[in-house]
Fold this protein.
Amino acid sequence: MKNQIKIPVRTLAEYVHRSGSIVSGFRTASSFTEGSRIHREVQNTYNEHDQSEVF
């Protein structure tokens, strides 16, 4: 990627969901499948010593 913007996830989530609930109701199975696929793709870019899931 040529242009990268680095911000904390919390900052992004707070901006996107600055009012109301982050639970938007109905989601299709394809939405969850797509999200899981993208999540795995991102985790595959991690370095050897990075942790994929952190409490």
Q: What stands out?
A: Residues 8 and 14 are 10 Å apart (CA to CA). The radius of gyration is 14 Å. The helical segments are 9-16, 29-43.
